[in-house]
Amino acid sequence: MLTLDLTNAPRWHDLAPGVRVQLRPLTTALMVATRSDPAVEAVPEEVSDEERAVAFGKALARRAVLAWEGIGDADGNPIDPSPAAIDALLDIWPIFEAFQLTYVSKGLLLETEKNASALSPNGPSVGASATAKPARKPARTARRG
Hints:
By secondary structure, this protein is of the alpha+beta class. The chain has helices at 28-35, 38-41, 49-64, 83-90, 93-108, and strands at residues 11-16, 19-23, 65-69. The N and C termini lie far apart (50 Å).
């Protein structure tokens, strides 16, 4: 089931220990506006997908970031978000990855209810229990005549 959040309220996202940002909801309007952002449109066609993703991510963050905590200047003084500061923040690889995973990816993939799928019985989500009982005996096959 697709769950709609009709409040459309900004949310806080943790990007690193002690660093969090308040972001606008990832709406269609925000994505469309970011696609037509001059910085995104200026990306040459011959650049790699990675470079294009960085340009898009920064443009999206410049539109989405409303506030932040745990971010300061070189002297350790808290600073407010600005386009240059947002770009500098996303130049830090773990921050960029966290932004992509916690905000962009979740916005691009439709999230389903948390109980829609069981955990994998092996791998990173170990813990699911089997729902079917094991077969007692192998099934008998029909004779061919």
